[in-house]
Amino acid sequence: MLLNRAQAKLHLGVAIPTALLTLVCLAFYVRESLEAGKPVGGGSGSGLICGIVAGLVIVFEMGLWPRKALRRLRLLPTKYWLAAHIWLGLASLPLAIAHCGFHLGGWLPATFMVLFVLCIVSGVYGLVVQNVLPRYMLRNLPSETIYNQIDYVSEQTVKDARQMLLTACGRNLSREQAFEEEPELEGVSTHTIVIGAVRQAGRTRGRTLETQRVPEAREDRETLWTALSEIEPFLLRGDAAQTPVNNRQQASQWFSRLRSACSEDGQSVIDILEGMCDQRRQFDIQATLHRWLHTWLAIHVGLSVAVSVLLAVHVWTALKYW
């Protein structure tokens, strides 16, 4: 869930009552602890209240799972449920700490508390990455595409690169190409191709299709085809392939040497090849950030289930030995 000015009213409407409830419970706990001269535990009146409230919060937090499965019932708008999930979840931690009297006790409450803290930490991590990474990707990865389409887009990029060289330089004479035979375009100084280009509107950048005219670079035919064969594995597989352009700095030096080896007519082709490599590099960053953005949820859900089970065991044990 996004935390921004547009959502401020929503979050304040949940955070303020939650904070007041937490402060009231903690105030009772502090008062009783001062009277006792030491931090009281879960057996005290205030400690029991803090534990009950924290337990009810955990039950409510787990209600988000069936809530998603029962969307058609429209029990409560999702944005309100998520806001309550965030702020009540954060408030439950100090209440749980007060309930245990600032010590872990036996193995059951200790395990319960450790997993509960880890669950809260994983939730906070998820909230942070959901608010930071999408904005970062929007600003810094203009070539971002649909995650599960990265391989397809990469294959299409390689096809576009081969077609561009075929148009600008002609067929590669050093090895067979998987292209249909096309006639040489004699007497034409430039050819038109369609490539991806970065455009910016305000603070938002994105990759769009652009038609460019690429001059003939027939004298650089062998050099450019050889260069494409060297970077093609990177365009297809990214960092998984060992090529001279994996690293941005090394790629810059490699393309500088390539420019020095080519004529002026080949510079436009080299610029496009360098842009394709930069696009593939952004795809690798996107894939990494995508894993950061989504893998936390499985961990958070797993910890939540474990906490819920231990909560039931803890309640049953407490009632048994009351």
What does this structure look like?
With 322 residues, the protein is mainly alpha-helical. It has helices at 8-36, 45-62, 64-69, 78-99, 107-140, 150-169, 221-237, 248-261, 267-320; strands at 190-201, 204-215. It has two domains: 5-141 and 291-320, no CATH class; 147-285, no CATH class. The chain is built from nine helices and two strands, in the order H-H-H-H-H-H-E-E-H-H-H. A two-stranded antiparallel ribbon has the order 1-2. The longest helix has 54 residues, at 267-320. It is elongated, with a radius of gyration of 30 Å.
Keywords summarizing the entry:
single chain; 322 residues; mainly alpha; 2 domains; two-stranded antiparallel ribbon; 7% strand
Sheet bearing the most strands, described?
2 strands, antiparallel
- Structural class from helices and strands? mainly alpha
Order of helices and strands: HHHHHHEEHHH
Give the beta-strand count. Answer: 2
Strand content: 5-15%
Order of strands across the main sheet: 1-2
Q: End-to-end span in angstroms?
A: 41 Å
**Number of individual domains:** 2
Assign an overall shape. Answer: elongated
Which stretches are low in confidence, meaning pLDDT under 50 for 5 or more residues running?
176-190, 197-201
Radius of gyration: 30 Å
Share of residues in helices: 55-70%
Structure annotation, total helices = 9
Averaged pLDDT, please?
84
Oligomeric composition of the shown chains: single chain
